[in-house]
Amino acid sequence: MLIKYGWVFLCGTVxxxxxxxIFFASAPSLDSxxxxxxxxxxxxxxxxxxxxELIQVKQYIDQQRVDLTINALTSRQFTASxxxxxxxxxxxxxxxxxxxxxxxxxxxxxxxxxxxGLADSDIYRLKAQRLLAAGHYQKGLEAFFIAKxxxxxxxxxxxxxxxxxxxxxxxxxxxxxQALALSNEEIQQxxxxxxxxxxxxxxxxxxxANIYEQQGEIQKALDALA
Length: 226
Known about the structure:
Radius of gyration: 39 Å
Structural class: mainly alpha
Strand content: under 5%
Distance between the termini: 144 Å
Number of strands: 0
Helix content: over 70%
């Protein structure tokens, strides 16, 4: 009986050994298993990087980091559409500075944009507002007329002309109130320049006629009214 059970145990051991050998021979080893690689699309990486750069430049603008912003805008790392987005964001920021009368920091921005070749009609309009607010009336009007010449459409040009007329009306009111901090000669030259640039605006001619009349130059006054 013991011999019978011994023989059965021996046969089972042999069969089990061969079965295990066959299984492990057919199973792939860890070293030979195919490696799974994750490929990152270069376009996706570039897009993520660009979005990060756009956000970074906007942060520069919010933080008044003028030089870093101008360097980024002039580095040619952005497409035309991306640059347009950033310029719109920057101009909105500059308009807010003007509304809040933050003239000093606005002046830093405008100067940097001019030096960086980024100035357009909008920038010169803001420059005109800043100069007029500082009492630099002649330079303010000059900046306004530069903006007018740089306008990209007739509609924009008409809008700038309205702003110039509004500024001139304020100067005329200041003169009438004797609150224009300029000498008589400076006032005269200011309105002569305005008339040369905007001949069709009648209030300038009337203003000049009044100035000439006060100086006793009746013929010049009549010429101005003519």
